[in-house]
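## Example record

The block below lists the input lines for one assembly entry, exactly as stored, with component labels intact.
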Amino acid sequence: MEKIGDFVLKISKRHNNRAFKYFTRKRSTQAAAAVQQDLQHELEGIKDAGTWKGERVITSKQGPTIHVAGSQADILNFCANNYLGLSSHPEVIEAGKKALDTHGAGLSSVRFICGTQYLHKELEDKISKFHKKEDTILYASCFDANAGLFEVLLGPEDAVISDELNHASIIDGIRLCKAKRFRYKHTDMKDLEQNLKDASSCHKKLIATDGVFSMDGSVAPLPDITRLGNEYGALVFIDECHGTGFFGPTGRGTDEHFGLEVDIINSTLGKAMGGAAGGYTSGPKELVQLLRQRSRPYLFSNTLPPPVVACASKAFDLIIQNPDLPKKLLTNTVRFRSKMTDAGFTISGDPGHPICPVMLGDAKLASTFADDMLEKGIYVIGFSYPVVPKGKSRIRVQISAAHSEQEIDRAVMLLLKSAENSKLSIKLTVKIEMLKRCYCLHEL
Ligand code: PLP
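Predicted structure tokens for the full assembly:
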């Protein structure tokens, strides 16, 4: 009989042989070559259309000042969703490190098999209290929360009535559900009402909207939406990715901003709330229980890693303990917006929201403007068609509570300089010297 030792040797030789063949082979078939050519063609098309999205490599932590590969100097960062400056906050980092030690890197499991720790339950409770909702369920991202909600809540006899400019993840989530779909013109309450009338024979009705629209910094007209919801017997769902933690008097979001209540909130942990990753649905306990039973991105995807949960949990603590954090962000936002407006720029969006789109109109101007700003040490992003409508190109400036007054002033000054240098169609009513005198802007 073959000895166990010889048997193991034989098997391991066979494995080594296979591994050698695996790592040295190169698959090359006609089908693969044809697909590669197609993809190449498509990639060229994206480049030709001017919609190619490059990725700059950041070589530092996220923060108001960053380092970018290829540049020696500090870059002032005005394009992250790090609204409260918590992404690299020492206490957030410490909480993450501690959880890594005590709870490990991850659970190697989905929640319902063996992936739930007290950390997860604690964060869900904390979020429910934060939003004054009955229960909360965590997801790996808000994209997942949006992908997993509608299919569970709505069946073929129901209706979802959605703002046409809702985030891609809401649109995808709605595509996955069997409810009748209605789409109203962006923030157009007459059109929403008409759609509610058209949906009147449906059983459950759900109005779905971003709380704040990230391209425009504009806020959904929630008082009218909730009034119409009440009148036509519809639930109201809001996506609060650009509101949670900082919008409204104590940072509870768009519902608090208007002093009213909505039925369901989805939001992210990947922006103001520590910036790592994760999303959630907060709402009635029966809905959350059903999501735990049926929501596919929850059931079939790994549990959130404990360090990520601990970072987000610490971010909630910091906001609850420091109500001044959202106030600091509002002060910075008002400083930036008022100086830019006085200088003759058009800044769209809600006057109190830190997403500040500087409207330039021309697509080429937006991209050269953003490049010029980066050369000057300010990181902002230009957006053009098809991300935003034709003729509405802009650079989007995002303010953080972590920016100092000097940093805000520097951004204003450099935007002004870029505008002057560009010799393009912006009419600046106030020149740099005058601005300096008006506001004691800090020297460049
Ligand atoms: N909803 C909105 C409005 C967003 O802006 C984003 C992120 O860009 C998401 C959902 C997705 O969030 P997450 O990054 O957590 O998947």
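The domain at 65-77+324-443 is CATH 3.90.1150.10 (Aspartate Aminotransferase, domain 1). DSSP finds 17 helices and 16 strands in the chain.
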